[in-house]
Design a protein that fits this description.
By secondary structure, the protein is α+β, with helices and mostly antiparallel strands. The protein has helices spanning 31-42, 83-92; strands at residues 6-11, 49-54, 66-69, 73-75. It is 18% helix and 16% strand. A four-stranded mixed β-sheet has the order 2-1-3-4, with helices on one face. It starts with 5 loop residues before the first strand and ends in a 29-residue tail after the last helix. The structure holds FE2/S2 (inorganic) cluster and zinc ion (ZN). The site of FE2/S2 (inorganic) cluster has 11 residues, from loops.
């Protein structure tokens, strides 16, 4: 069997309501992962591209979070309506979806403004 060309890790972590970091899958139903898996299979990618259900990717404030490897492209605030565009643009045509890419200074950065919102004045 050929190797997978890409892995998508889709955060499906669920936390209790009101958790300060929030979470990517409040409903706990892995809807995004299911959609990626289903739509990739419809296009015949199921043997080449894997849509993995992931635990917390530590980018909770930007969630729902999806990372694509080996490209190392991180997407944030991904909705079900974005799945088709990510597949068409990134997976099929090799062009990551710029509008959903997390800024470099957000990823694994404790100084990220989303992780440390300024208190209301
Ligand atoms: S809960 Fe999804 S990145 Fe942490
Ligand atoms: Zn950020």
């Amino acid at each position: 069997m050929p190797k997978f060309e890409r892995h998508l890790f889709i955060c499906c972590n669920q936390r209790e309501p009101g958790h300060p970091r929030g979470c990517c899958d409040p409903a706990g139903q892995a809807q995004l992962q299911y959609l990626f898996k289903q739509k990739l299979a419809l296009r015949g990618f199921n043997k080449r591209v894997r849509a993995n259900m992931s635990g917390c990717l530590d980018q909770c404030e930007h969630g729902p979070t999806v990372v694509v490897y080996p490209d190392g492209v991180w997407y944030g605030r991904v909705t079900p309506g974005d799945v088709e565009e990510i597949i068409e643009s990134h997976i099929v045509n090799g062009r990551p979806v710029d509008r959903l890419i997390l800024p470099e200074d957000c990823i694994n950065a404790s100084s990220c403004p989303h992780r440390n919102p300024k208190p209301d004045r």
